[in-house]
Design goal:
mainly alpha; Rna Polymerase Sigma Factor, Chain: A; Serine Threonine Protein Phosphatase 5, Tetratricopeptide repeat; 18 helices; 0% strand
């Protein structure tokens, strides 16, 4: 067998990190019962893979290889700790043996290792944003920069937030313990937020050359299906799955054959996934029947209106405006307000929408968010104010790092200059 080159090995390890991190960490955490220790063992396993795979070739099942390597490191650590407990009994505070809790504390309530670990990390002792950020970092393998992008904050701010969460876990002696079935509802909102932000990161890769990261998209949809199966009577679990299916149904039409970004009004709707739309719309109806629809169910209803419209022009914009008003009451997010402004432009005209954007610019919470100047640019373009539109497109281009988005914004700026 030919020995693989260094570049091939690095790419194989990077691909295994993208696809297998959550599985490997979840399996290792079941041994260590300590997330920090599990993360360290998994990182060591990935480092070891660089050398071992260069000598032996990339294994047929990289995830299994990495899981075995990480678990061996975890077991070695547990053996060393047991030895210390045996040889230094007077220096160790008596307590449960490491790993002794494995297989208890609600493991049976959650059938999937990855989902079990997400519910475990979403501990109510932490602030919700800290729960979500830490889970995205540890369990989903997202970088600090990617998580910062999802939260619309700076990378240093997010790094500090993750560090504080880890310190609180240590200071408060929060043990790794899988929650029981009765504890799941209190953690559901944070878990759904994790899955939604994981999907969002895959839907538009913040820094990649391509628009979409299919691995993250597919992982998020699989997790959403598991959460709904686990908690079928929760309208938000049903709503999230509906939202992801309806959004992802447009995947094939979001770029052209050359990978160029196509806006919603430019997309060929015959390429939309009709089966996913049918399933998603049925789930929206079910979530609304269950009552108490929250932010995910309302967002899913918004996606259903878009999905069922025969064309962009024939979209029921008035209904969308009502839905966005309801969503803003439930979830007063500046990103929601920005999306509502786009709908305002279709019902009241671009000038009215620019007034809403001016308020968001003064608010400041979307500073550095590329879609704010991009939306402003499009409104100005529609009004024929091309010089101002060009400046706004260039401002959005400064903030964008995804290759497909940058090409689109640069093209629009060039059009406005012409």
């Amino acid at each position: 067998m030919a020995v693989p080159g260094a570049d091939e090995i690095r790419e194989a390890v990077a691909e295994a990190h993208r696809r297998e991190w959550a599985f490997v960490l979840a399996a290792t955490a079941r041994v260590t019962r300590d997330l920090d220790a599990a993360e360290e063992c998994v990182q060591d396993a990935y480092v070891a893979a660089l050398d071992a795979w260069a000598r032996q070739g990339v294994p047929r099942n990289p995830g299994a290889w990495l899981t075995t390597a990480a678990r061996h490191r975890a077991l070695d650590g547990l053996r060393r700790e047991r030895t210390l407990r045996t040889k230094l009994p007077l220096l160790i505070v008596p307590g449960a043996e490491p790993g002794a809790a494995a297989g208890r504390d609600g493991d049976g309530a959650i059938p999937d290792d990855r989902l079990r670990l997400i519910f475990t990390c979403c501990h109510p002792a932490l602030a919700v944003q800290a729960q979500v950020a830490l889970t995205l970092r540890l369990v989903c393998g997202l970088s600090t920069a990617e998580i910062a992008e999802a939260f619309v904050v700076s990378e240093p701010t997010m790094a500090a937030r993750v560090t504080r969460a880890k310190k609180k876990i240590l200071a408060a002696r929060i043990a790794y313990r899988v929650p029981g079935a009765a504890e799941l509802p209190d953690r559901l909102d944070a878990v759904l937020t994790v899955v939604h932000l994981l999907y969002t990161t895959g839907h538009t890769d913040p820094r990649g050359a391509d628009l979409i990261r299919p691995d993250l998209v597919e992982r998020a949809i699989a997790l959403a299906r598991m959460v709904r199966s686990l908690m079928p009577d929760e309208p938000e679990a049903t709503g999230l799955l509906a939202l992801l299916l309806l959004t992802d149904a447009r995947r094939a039409a979001r770029t052209d054959g050359a990978g160029r970004l196509l806006l919603l009004e430019q997309q060929d709707r015959s390429l939309w996934d009709a089966a996913a739309i049918a399933e998603g719309c049925a789930l929206v109806a079910e979530a609304l029947r269950l009552g108490r629809p929250g932010r995910f169910a309302i967002q899913a209803a918004i996606s259903a209106v878009h999905a069922e419209a025969p064309s962009y022009a024939a979209t029921d914009w008035e209904q969308l405006l009502l839905l966005y008003d309801r969503l803003l009451r439930l979830w007063p997010s500046p990103v929601v307000a920005l999306n509502r402004a786009v709908v305002t432009s279709m019902t009241r005209g671009p000038e009215a929408a620019l007034d809403e954007l001016a308020a968001l610019e003064c608010d400041g919470r979307l500073d550095g968010y590329r879609y704010l100047p991009a939306t402003k640019a499009d409104l100005l373009r529609r009004l024929g104010r091309h010089a101002e539109a060009r400046q706004a497109y260039l401002a959005a281009l400064e903030l964008a790092e995804n290759g497909a988005e940058r090409a689109f914004l640069a093209g629009r700026a060039a059009e406005m200059a012409g």
